Task: structure prediction
Amino acid sequence: MEIRSLQESLAAEVVDLSLWQDISEADIARLREAWQRFPVLVIRRQALSEGELTRFSKHFGPLAIVIKTALQNTGPSEVSYVTNLRDGLGEPLGGLSYGEVAWHTDQAYRLNPATGAVLYAAEVPENAGRTSFNNLYLAWENLPGNLKAAVEGREGVYSYHQRMYVGMKEAFSRDKPFTPELMKQTPDVVHPLTLKNPLTGRTSLYFDVSTLTHIVGLSDEDSQELIDAVGPHVQRDAYVYTHTWQPGDVVMWDNGCLLHRREPFDPRLMRLMKRTTIHLPPERHCVPAGRLA
Ligand SMILES: O=C(O)CCC(=O)C(=O)O
Ligand SMILES: [Fe+2]
Result:
């Protein structure tokens, strides 16, 4: 197994590793260590069953369980689909379809977000539907002093309603609608706007522009002003790695220190990604501990 930098401090490719085989403790330790230095890890040319994808993902923390309908995949309950494919009745087989998925960090609207994500490309259109990742350690380190001072020690209110109907509206527009009961189970939560990596001490912004509605303790006007001022800094090309997918790619990323976005693609093309979501241990990763708003 070899780890090759794709982009300094952001993305690396792991080569000579077969995820369907048993992986030695030593290699798992190296992967965990590499994930600290590179919040995006790419492992190409994999051919994985859903059980193998699940088994690999569990090396990094307990997996989130996905609530599925009878029509969705019947495999392990830890695997969900990100896809524009539909079943014979025209029902979506998964989520996020083919539209643009705007910059966001997964699960910021949750009290205890599961911040590790593993996406396995089963079927992808060539050179389309690329996914980009933005490094929020670098965004924090390069933030102008006045904005740093305005953000430091502050908390933000995150709303699922905002994400679904404003920030990521395009991505969600073709998904099955959320029921009012599920909406009630996702009340607004508060998270700090910066997180500290417990191993390196490095600070990352935690600033999800798609889901943030308010900065705690500021007037509506001042809140919006601060969100608008920081927004461009978390979406700067300088800190971005863009992944062009090939079938068999596995990309794992740490949502505690990244934003990501996906480009839209032609709805006539097929894209099927299988996904696991990991509760990354807060002793090793930037993990927000929220409270209700
Ligand atoms: O479709 C993609 O490439 C990424 C979608 C996404 O935002 C996710 O799986 O969290
Ligand atoms: Fe996402």
Observations:
- The longest strand covers residues 116-123.
- The two ends are 45 Å apart (CA to CA).
- The mean pLDDT is 93.
- The helical segments are 25-37, 50-57, 136-141, 145-151, 160-167, 169-172, 180-184, 220-230.
